[in-house]
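Follow-up to my post from last week.
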Amino acid sequence: MTGAAALLSVRDLRVVFDGRHGPMIALDGVSFDIAPGEILGVVGESGAGKSLTGTSVIGLLDPPGRIAGGSISLAARRIDNLPAEEMRRLRGREIGAIFQDPLTSLHPLLKVGDQIVETILTHLTVSRAEARARALQLLKDVGIPAADMRIDHYPHQFSGGMRQRVVIALALCAEPRLIIADEPTTALDVSIQAQITTLLKRLCRDHGTAIMLVTHDMGVIAETADRVAVMYAGRIVEIGPVDQVTRRPSHPYTAGLMASIPSVHRRNATLHQIDGAMPRLGAMPSGCPFHPRCGRVLPLCKTVRPELGAGEHASACHAPLPEPSHV
Amino acid sequence: MSDMAPILSVDAACCHFDVSSPWLARKLSGAPRRILRAVEDVSFTIRRGTTFSIVGESGCGKSTLARMVVGLQKPTDGSVRFGDIRHPDGRVAPPRVQMIFQDPYASLNPRWRVGDIIAEPVRELGLRSSERDVLQRVGDLLEIVGLSRADITRYPHAFSGGQRQRISIARALATEADFLVCDEPTSALDVSVQAQILNLMVRLQAEFGLTYLFISHNLSVVRHMSDHLAIMYLGRIVEQGPAEDVFRQPQHPYTRLLLDTIPDVEQPNRARRPMSGEVPSPISPPSGCAFHPRCSVAESRCTETRPEPRLKGDVQVACHLA
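User reply:
Got it. Predicted complex:
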């Protein structure tokens, strides 16, 4: 992936929380690109920093968190140092957001149509009638049945899956070039989850929108994303095309994560487990943050932090798993 | 020791909730009473030492069923019966039942030390005579679930989600329980932690001969854990049988669709048709087979008569076309 073609380019991003006991580094040297029309999955366990990466990109980082280094560029324009007002206009217009809980992302006292119309009027210069026609079209696009009637309903009249469609319509309404989707299907049932991921893929294909899909569910990533970044303790430990990362993981953490997912195809006596837990921010191990839990640990891992290599499929590990020999 | 008699028999159990408006409002508007049929005519049995799973989407009644089994909810009709088992001390009595809840953050008292949380059932049931024995037992339990004896004096906030779920399990085992009802015990946990907890549960089952009633919406977890399973849709069991049979050859169209729609790391982008529509309201379920509006193979009789469960091999299916 070359930087020139990238729509979103994050370089060496550092996010720090200033606490009573000094600064705590929550994101440490995160770099990745997303090309137009591409879905980048960001996967990791709670506390890995995946949501924080998303909120940094849309500029919604809450104090005491702050960006302490690195850069975020959208279409070759720095956006991490924009004034709040300019960032507010960019949000929604250039970058849309979909959050986990579709109920809290919608205003409960406004009809869904009015919420979409208001957002369209904020970002685009169109008449109210045009905005309403556009809102209606969007609701049809995201697959809401009887959209012409539903447009005047309140959020509580929609089911979870339908609400998440409204949130997606809201994120799309100004035709942003990038959408940050943070656990968009986690609150939904599997049958609805499949509908929403299919919808996201279709929108990506039809509108050329780039999506940063943040989730903890490897299954969703495997089915939806083009590329995937695996995060651990505030760093990207492995990044690459989704089939390569899931089928031939190179970082021991990714391999462990993949092996710990129970399979629907067979029943194993025991699941592979990664012992221990993710380190806390205040007690980050030296060297590679994964070394206390790693089965392939070398003396080097305890002192020197491995860097994410270059190339399409890269991992940050001193002792990566070997490529399987070709049969 | 194998008891052939089931440890739990649920027979035609129903649980209805009256969700009507208040009497006066109902009289003024002329609205009828509204009954939510959360669980309707559910029957199954569980044998000792096995895992029985109940799978379904939100609102299908699986949690209500779990609450009926532990006695937190009275069945409106039908019965929930525990069979007598021979306890290690020679008594013949019904099993001790405990529950493990979904959210390990909400199910432990934040103001109690872990030692007290686990000792409470031991003290309350008088399972140990002296305080020294109680503390000994609590320490043993902590080690059984993979924590350390030193954790006795710590508070729940000092533990991660997975560790808290271990504390919940230790608390359940503290009663010398034989039967655990686990309501989505790992759905709040990360996959690597989920693997730790599932492995722990499998180990404890082998060690103590526990029986699990396992409630989940995650089919891969269910496949890993279950000997038998039941798929619920709108309050009814649509298919039940030995887990291997159901997974190898799902017969009900709903089971097939569920298996088809789960995101799969091993076979991504396989040809599949996402299920259209959503689960209807259990207050006014569709006529005939409740699944017919979403079913791709539904015929006219599916809209008229409700299919009764029929036995096909070891699997019981409620579908006209299966």
